[in-house]
Amino acid sequence: MATQVGLYKVRNGHRTVWMLRWTSGRKRCGETLDGVDQISKREAKARQRAKQSAFDSGTESPNRPDRMTLRQLIAYYPDRRRQFGKGRGHLRKAQKLSEATIDSHLMTLRYMVQFFGGDQAIDRISLSGADDFIDALEAGKLSAARAKLRRKYEVGPQTIRRHIRNSKAVFTWALLFELVQANPFAMFEGKPLATEPNHYVTMSEFHKLYRAAPSQGWRMLFALCRLAGLRLDAARTLPWSGHATDSDGERHWIGIDWDRHRICIVGNSKVTKKNREVPIRPLLYRLLRTAFDSSEARFQHPRVGECGSITGLSPNNLTRIGQRAARHGGMEPWPKLYQAMRASCENDLKMRGVAEATYAAWMGHSPTVSRKHYTAPTDQEFAAVARVA
């Protein structure tokens, strides 16, 4: 007899929710949907039909496994973490994740499959098993997931801690939904290690890098990172004029606002995809205007979005070519080439007396992130104080 899925209204605490129920053998199963004030009856019935179709076609089993294995978790986890967008904000530890974060979690889970085996029940992973897994990561024994690399893969301490954070997040989520009874990674330290301050890229170094750039696109990339503080991907893809969609599906105009001396962008995957504006300092304005006047952009049809990105660069080998340009300019490439230029721009704003909340908003992160990863005392500040009588 085919499994029949029923739709019910169920009182759950202080609210009423839609719930799917079905019987598998002698076991009654259910799945809670959103509240009746969040989705309509028509949408709830559509999800009931989708569940019924999945059971009838065999793409989903009505039998809920008593224990979930690591292999099942990898298949189950991504879609579930994509669903916590609307109507479930009260689940503070199960919020919707970005695709980049989900991919990072899945990499950690694949390492777990390699270490424990795909049939390992997730509620049977013990504290000692978690400790052995971390030791194996640290020893580089789980490098088969990186088999395409032609060199020995060594896992650094920051990477180890990232995998610990991923493991803690996955099992905290599993604990929230009663897939496990305890989080075996809860006692491990996953906080990132303190890093050295970014190199402050002086204007002299910037001009050397600018002159050594291999093309006009590269000059614009360096200028947008150092003088506007844009992230690498935002600088590479910024158009002269175009549109982009934020996380709420709203379209915004982005590009160079010549009249107001501002760059309008939409954030990247590291932050919420909200539109923001960044001021254009006089030097950057002159460089942008020179690039625009010498490019083909001004000869194109003036409809928005037809002039492509300012740099016209592909995402490949950006760091390697940037380091080569630094060497051609007579400099030793500094660590984190582009982040250092972005941090230097933020330090310039700090030294000019711009309020912390203001320049952090321009950079697209919180003041806490600014203090922790970007701003630091510069040689100019030391020298300024030393000259005071």
Q: Mind explaining what this structure looks like?
A:
This protein has 389 residues and is an alpha+beta fold. 44% of the residues lie in helices and 12% in strands. The chain has helices at 41-57, 70-82, 99-116, 127-138, 157-176, 203-212, 216-227, 232-237, 282-294, 318-328, 337-351, 356-363, 367-374, 379-386, and strands at 6-12, 15-24, 27-35, 241-245, 251-257, 262-266, 275-279. A four-stranded antiparallel beta sheet has the order 4-5-6-7. A hairpin with a 2-residue loop joins strand 2 and strand 3. The radius of gyration is 26 Å and the shape is globular.
| Distance between the ends | 92 Å
Largest sheet: 4 strands, antiparallel
How many beta-strand segments? 7
**Percent of residues in helices:** 40-55%
What is the gyration radius calculated from CA atoms?
26 Å
The side-by-side strand order for the widest beta sheet comes to 4-5-6-7
Count the DSSP helices: 14
- Spans of at least 5 consecutive residues whose pLDDT stays below 50 are 85-89, 298-307
How much beta, percentage-wise?
5-15%
Mean pLDDT: 81
N to C succession of SSEs: EEEHHHHHHHHEEEEHHHHHH
Q: What overall form do the CA principal axes indicate?
A: globular
Broad structural category: alpha+beta
Oligomer: single chain
Provide a quick synopsis of the model.
The protein has 389 residues and is of the alpha+beta class.
Describe the secondary-structure layout.
Layout lengths: L5 E7 L2 E10 L2 E9 L5 H17 L12 H13 L16 H18 L10 H12 L18 H20 L26 H10 L3 H12 L4 H6 L3 E5 L5 E7 L4 E5 L8 E5 L2 H13 L23 H11 L8 H15 L4 H8 L3 H8 L4 H8 L3
Antiparallel strand pairs: 1-2, 2-3, 4-5, 5-6, 6-7
